[in-house]
């Protein structure tokens, strides 16, 4: 049973991360790369040496001791060691966003809307606000996590920033940590006098890098997404953001945040600051709203605004299209819009006449890969990919609703080659100890009216409803294991190397357990036939299997493939499709 993590954790994570980093023997000085791509890869390889291994993470989870009260003092030390001061952070005029679901999408909306706003220049003209955006995880490249003006850092800039931080930390590696101020319970304990690790772990290092980059590029506003939780998250080193936001809450990361919605809400509320307004979505889980209100009062927030999706968006004056698909994005858009408006009131230029129109256009233009994303690729004409990272029961219910809506909206007309509905497939995995049995019910219950595939609304094959034709439970590996370690290194992008996920067991026990969990759930009563269930060791193997059943005849409806669950799987799928623009040949 997961601990509620309400005690006083020690420095287990810091020590484990330091041990892992030391064992990886990272370079003490930047190598001399041949070109920008080589420089980027060398930087990412060094960054990967700071990852905490899956085995260490599992040990910590079992002890219920993943929270680290040293986190904020250590982050303060790291920033001090590279020369980033509290005054520098204040100049970034930060928007800080936490939540279980939708915080990345909300951050992307905020960034896109603020980039549509402008500020006066010395010559009387106006220029767009310069934005910084820090999010996690990445899907294709690590550089996605740190964006300036909406674009990931170019490889050369990423490498330059990485080695700048690395060098500064090397020069100050013998620094000692002051008594931690984040948790008085540590005062006077041995943990309070522990030396600062020579370098942060992977996520903290990227957080430090983001602040270094945003300061160096002189952004007007930095939008910072929490990693996990809030109180002890590395991003919570920000002493005084302009405004904070909390999106929808649910049960996740229980080893870190506790196993009740009240405990999770309390941790997320740790980003609240005295005198700083906090914008939250209307919560539908347990007593989350009550906890957030109480925490806002305890932290001395300027005010806590709970916003309702459609009502907040309506303030723009008319119906507003949202660039991200899914009805659940209305709640995220409401938080994003309110965050932008509060930021403009407190730190930015006064709202002027063209801003509402600019915000409407920006909301319609926002894009965020891997979230309710539809891909139709010329080289894969027999498939439509529906891709949505979703790893809580609530987010998977939203994913199921979105996918069902796409099937109604995309109902094909009968074609000469086929009067049947399209084949539908599910590709799924979950990671980090999440239980498939609690995640799959919304997907298991999905049925699709056969009439969706008939322009006249009449089931052409006599079935009242259909479910998925194929379900494949898969690892988050892009490719099947190569024959040798040399081939393995060559076949895996450095951006996608992940020590947090353990080495794959060739027997695929986790995938077989997911398949068993699927079978234990009741099949939809209305469906005439149930799905064929399989397991696969990689995205490559899963798609090859599905393509064997795809109807490639001209005019046939394309197979609808829903890829969901872990964001690692989403990233692996996007990586595979990027590197394999043509579908495998028909066998």
UniProtKB/TrEMBL annotation:
Q: Which reaction does it catalyse?
A: (6S)-5,6,7,8-tetrahydrofolyl-(gamma-L-Glu)(n) + L-glutamate + ATP = (6S)-5,6,7,8-tetrahydrofolyl-(gamma-L-Glu)(n+1) + ADP + phosphate + H(+)
Listed GO CC annotations: cytosol; mitochondrial inner membrane; mitochondrial matrix
Per its UniProt record, the required cofactor names are: a monovalent cation
* Compartments, as annotated in UniProt: Cytoplasm; Mitochondrion inner membrane; Mitochondrion matrix
Q: Where is the composition biased (Low complexity)?
A: 16-26
Query: Which PROSITE patterns is this protein grouped with?
Result: FOLYLPOLYGLU_SYNT_1, FOLYLPOLYGLU_SYNT_2
Region ranges (Disordered): 16-36
Q: Could you give a single Gene Ontology term from the biological process aspect?
A: one-carbon metabolic process
Query: What does the cofactor field's note say?
Result: A monovalent cation.
The positions annotated for binding ATP are: 371, 388
InterPro entries assigned: Folylpolyglutamate_synth, Folylpolyglutamate_synth_CS, Folylpolyglutamate_synth_euk, Mur-like_cat_sf, Mur_ligase_C_dom_sf
Per UniProt, where does Mg(2+) bind?
A: 136, 225, 253
> What EC number(s) is this enzyme filed under?
6.3.2.17
UniProt keyword terms in alphabetical order: ATP-binding, Cytoplasm, Ligase, Magnesium, Membrane, Metal-binding, Mitochondrion, Mitochondrion inner membrane, Nucleotide-binding, One-carbon metabolism
Gene Ontology molecular function: any one: tetrahydrofolylpolyglutamate synthase activity
Instruction: Report which superkingdom the organism of origin falls in.
Output: Eukaryota
Coiled coil feature spans: none
Q: What does this protein do?
A: Catalyzes conversion of folates to polyglutamate derivatives allowing concentration of folate compounds in the cell and the intracellular retention of these cofactors, which are important substrates for most of the folate-dependent enzymes that are involved in one-carbon transfer reactions involved in purine, pyrimidine and amino acid synthesis.
| Family assignment from sequence similarity | Belongs to the folylpolyglutamate synthase family.
- Which NCBIfam families does this UniProt record tie to the protein? folC
| Protein's name according to its UniProt entry | Folylpolyglutamate synthase
Please tell me the species this chain comes from. Answer: Caulochytrium protostelioides
């Amino acid at each position: 049973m997961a601990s509620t993590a309400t005690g006083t954790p020690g420095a287990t994570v810091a020590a484990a991360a330091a041990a892992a980093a030391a064992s990886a023997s990272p370079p003490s000085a930047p190598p001399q790369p041949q070109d920008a791509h080589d420089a980027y890869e060398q930087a990412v390889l060094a960054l990967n040496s700071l990852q905490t291994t899956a085995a260490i993470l599992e040990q910590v989870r079992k002890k219920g001791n993943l929270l680290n009260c040293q986190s904020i003092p250590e982050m303060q030390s790291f920033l001090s060691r590279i020369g980033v001061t509290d005054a520098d952070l204040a100049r970034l005029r930060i928007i800080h966003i936490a939540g279980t679901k939708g915080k990345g999408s909300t951050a992307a909306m905020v960034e896109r809307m603020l980039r549509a706003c402008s500020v006066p220049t010395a010559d009387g003209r106006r220029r767009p606000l310069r934005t910084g955006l820090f999010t996690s995880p990445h899907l294709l490249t690590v550089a996605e996590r740190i964006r300036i003006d909406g674009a990931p850092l170019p490889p050369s800039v990423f490498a330059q920033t990485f080695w700048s931080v690395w060098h500064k930390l090397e020069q100050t590696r013998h620094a000692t940590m002051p008594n931690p101020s984040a948790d008085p319970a540590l005062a006077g304990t041995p943990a309070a006098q522990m030396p600062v690790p020579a370098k942060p772990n992977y996520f903290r290092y990227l957080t430090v890098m983001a602040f270094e980059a945003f300061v160096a590029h002189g952004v007007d506003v930095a939008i910072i997404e929490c990693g996990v939780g809030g109180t002890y998250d590395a991003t919570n080193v920000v002493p005084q953001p302009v405004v904070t936001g909390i999106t929808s809450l649910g049960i996740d990361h229980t080893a870190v945040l506790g196993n009740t919605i009240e405990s999770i809400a309390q941790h997320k509320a740790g980003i609240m600051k005295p005198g700083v307004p906090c914008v939250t979505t209307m919560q539908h889980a347990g007593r989350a709203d009550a906890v957030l209100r109480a925490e806002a009062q305890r932290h001395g927030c300027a005010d806590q605004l709970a916003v309702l999706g459609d009502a907040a968006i309506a303030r723009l004056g008319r119906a507003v299209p949202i660039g991200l698909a899914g009805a659940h994005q209305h709640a995220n858009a409401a938080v994003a819009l309110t965050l932008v408006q509060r930021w403009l009131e407190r730190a930015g230029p006064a709202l002027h006449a063209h801003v509402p129109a600019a915000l409407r256009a920006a909301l319609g233009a926002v894009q965020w890969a891997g979230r309710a994303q539809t891909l139709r690729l010329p080289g894969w004409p027999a498939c439509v990919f529906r891709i949505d990272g979703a790893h809580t029961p609530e987010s998977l219910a939203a994913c199921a609703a979105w996918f069902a809506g796409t099937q109604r909206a995309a109902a094909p007309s009968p074609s000469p080659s086929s009067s049947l509905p399209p084949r539908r497939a599910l590709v799924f995995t979950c990671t980090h100890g999440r239980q498939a049995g609690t995640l799959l019910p919304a997907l298991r219950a999905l049925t699709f009216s056969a009439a969706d595939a008939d322009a006249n609304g009449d089931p052409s094959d006599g079935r009242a409803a259909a479910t998925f034709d194929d379900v494949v439970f898969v690892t988050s590996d892009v490719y099947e294991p190569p024959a040798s370690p040399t081939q393995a290194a060559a076949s895996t992008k450095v951006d996608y190397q992940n020590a947090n996920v353990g080495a794959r067991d060739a027997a695929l026990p986790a995938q077989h357990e997911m398949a068993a969990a699927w079978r234990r759930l009741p099949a939809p009563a209305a469906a005439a036939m149930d799905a064929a269930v399989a397991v696969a060791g990689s995205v490559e193997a899963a798609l090859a299997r599905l393509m064997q059943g795809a109807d490639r005849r001209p005019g046939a409806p394309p197979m609808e493939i829903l890829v969901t669950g872990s964001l690692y799987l989403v990233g692996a799928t996007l990586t595979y499709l990027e590197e394999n623009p043509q579908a495998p040949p028909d066998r």
